[in-house]
Write a structure and sequence with these properties.
Blueprint lengths: L2 H4 L7 E3 L8 E3 L9 E4 L12 H6 L4 E4 L11 E4 L3 H12 L8 E6 L4 H14 L4 E4 L3 E4 L2 E4 L7 H13 L4 E5 L2 H5 L10 E4 L7 H4 L2 H13 L12 E5 L5 H7 L3 E5 L8 E8 L2 E8 L2 E7 L4 H16 L4 H9 L9 E2 L7 E5 L4 H14 L4 E5 L9 H12 L2 E4 L9 H13 L4 E2 L2 H7 L8 E4 L3 H11 L5 E5 L6 E4 L2 E4 L2 H12 L4
Parallel strand pairs: 2-3, 3-4, 4-5, 6-10, 6-11, 7-10, 11-12, 12-13, 18-23, 19-20, 19-23, 20-22, 21-22
Antiparallel strand pairs: 1-5, 7-8, 8-9, 14-15, 15-16, 17-18, 24-25
Helix pairs in contact: 3-5, 4-10, 4-11, 10-11, 12-13, 13-14, 16-17
């Protein structure tokens, strides 16, 4: 694309250098620059992209976009100054790739919990209707037959527009996206036009970034107010809103487009009836304005009924028959790291889940409690360099819903793991559990059954082995916080670590077998 045409989307910019040059790529990473690339230098949180302008030029960049004052260009380089480099990246990328979101049916999902499960259910419904659908989310980006491990829930804007362009190239008509609050606040989805937006819930998370719940909410709200901006698509926009969540009314008031509500409330447009739940799945009747029909899923827990209700709203808004929707829901047997059951022939249950917020952990343990026959043994920690306020709350939540809690490390990052654990422990003390030396208690009374206590084991592998070693017949071991992640971040090192792999090892080594 000619640079002059590309720059038409920027209202305010100061340009030094030629405008007739060809731009063959757009990137914000100097390592990905090739000949005739446009490089956007973004002032980041940990490093400043302006430090890498020289590297970008050496690698072949012919256009530099940056903030602040600019000097006369050298070596036939065009330099462009903009007030907001992140926003410029989004606008330029959408223009460069031909606004792919305008050529797709775009479904965006936002909320603290439930985004990933909801996205996979929606994708399954669309594909069950005989359509092709791309997916961009926390676990992976799925484009045609290709699956890419996701570094971010929502890609940076240049990557996002590239992926959407590739989704069209794969023959898809639909794209389902998890839209994070970070993405909304940092303009990653600017000039990305959504047709349907889903709100799952809002509970405390990411306050290291947003600072207050109000700021967090306002970031999420942007997805729904964006629906109000008609841009020529020949489809009606719809907001699918969880009416059970306290923030739902404010979202409904802010939207000017059609709203479909879902939830357990009798006032919801889509609600469940005749519910049955066990560890192997759920079943209910979906009561909707477009008919009542049975729904079955191998996913379990009351919270997954909520996720499923939202997908019914999406399916109906897309014009699919209820039978197609029900079959699409039934086709999803499991989702990586979401209530993922680990089966190695043991006589107790082991569940691995991504729950890493107070609300997600509460929902998970409430679901487990519904069909627990014996003890609940929970292993979890909290991430370092993240919202510190949720640590004691998660400790108290785990303590109130478990018989035994083992506090361990998650991704401590640059923080001292023991400092994170101490914060969790402050909350768990309020739950009524007491710290215990299980080995000592077993020695005193070998026939005693350990319960109503917590242990501290900073090494996550040892904590998982301990939990599974303690488990007896019909107990449920819950390993929470990392789910699908196959790594652990300690300091500045990222090492391979998969809760599911460790759990399988432990079952084979120390777990009782049937």
């Amino acid at each position: 694309m000619i640079l002059k045409e590309l720059l038409e989307v920027l209202n305010k910019s100061n340009v030094l250098g030629g405008l007739e040059r060809q731009v063959k790529d757009i990137t914000y990473d100097s390592r990905e620059v090739r000949k005739d690339s446009l490089f956007v230098a973004i002032p980041g949180f940990k490093t400043d992209g302006r430090k890498y302008i020289a590297d970008a030029i050496r690698n072949g960049a012919s256009v530099i976009v940056t903030e602040g004052t600019i000097e006369a260009p050298e070596n036939n380089i065009t330099v462009i100054s903009v007030p907001d480099a992140r926003n410029a990246l989004a606008l330029l990328s959408a223009q460069f790739y031909g606004y792919p979101s305008r050529r797709l049916r775009m479904i965006g999902i936002t909320g603290t919990n439930g985004k990933t499960t909801t996205s996979y259910l929606i994708k399954s419904i669309i594909e069950n209707a005989g359509k092709r659908c791309g997916l961009l989310g926390t676990i992976s980006y799925i484009i045609g037959d290709e699956t890419i491990q996701a570094p971010h829930t929502t890609p940076e804007s240049a990557d996002l527009q590239k992926y959407l362009h590739r989704i069209i190239g794969s023959g898809a008509e639909y794209a389902v996206m998890e839209v994070s609050s970070h993405a909304l606040e940092l303009n990653r989805v600017a000039d990305c036009e959504f047709d349907i937006a889903v709100f799952t819930n809002l509970t405390q998370d990411h306050l290291d970034f947003h600072k207050t719940m109000e700021d967090y909410f306002k970031a999420k709200l942007k997805l729904f107010t964006s629906l109000n901006n008609e841009r020529g698509k020949m489809v009606k926009k719809v907001g699918i809103i969880n009416i059970d969540d306290p923030y739902s009314k404010r979202i409904l008031d802010a939207m000017k487009v059609k709203a479909v509500t879902y939830g357990f409330s009798r006032d919801a447009d889509i609600r469940p009836d005749e519910i049955r739940i066990d560890i192997n799945g759920i079943a209910f009747k979906a009561v909707t304005a477009k008919g009542i029909f049975p729904v079955e899923s191998k996913l379990t827990g009351k919270y997954n009924i909520t996720n499923i209700l939202s997908t019914i709203g999406v399916g109906q808004s897309l014009g699919f028959d209820n039978s197609i929707i029900a079959d699409g829901i039934r086709a999803v047997e499991n989702i990586s790291g979401r209530f993922e059951k680990i089966e190695e022939g043991q006589d107790f249950a082991v569940v691995v889940d991504y729950a890493h917020t107070e609300d997600a952990l509460k929902r998970l343990l409430e679901a487990v409690k519904e069909f627990a026959k014996e003890r609940i043994i929970t292993v979890f920690g909290c991430g370092g360099d993240r919202d510190k306020g949720k640590r004691p709350k998660m400790g108290e939540t785990a303590g109130k819903a478990s018989n035994i809690v083992i506090i361990t490390s998650d991704n401590p990052r640059s923080e001292d793991p023991m400092e994170i654990i101490k914060a969790i422990e402050e909350g768990i003390k309020n739950s009524g559990l007491r710290i215990a030396n299980c080995e000592l208690e077993k020695i005193r009374n070998p026939k005693s059954e350990i319960r109503n206590c917590y242990l501290i084991m900073p090494d996550r592998r040892e904590a998982i082995y301990k939990a599974i070693g303690l488990a007896k017949k019909d107990d449920i071991v819950v390993i929470a916080g990392k789910g699908h992640e196959d790594y652990q971040i300690i300091g500045d090192k990222k090492i391979h670590f998969d809760d599911r792999e460790i759990a399988r090892e432990a079952i084979k080594t120390v777990g009782s077998r049937k």
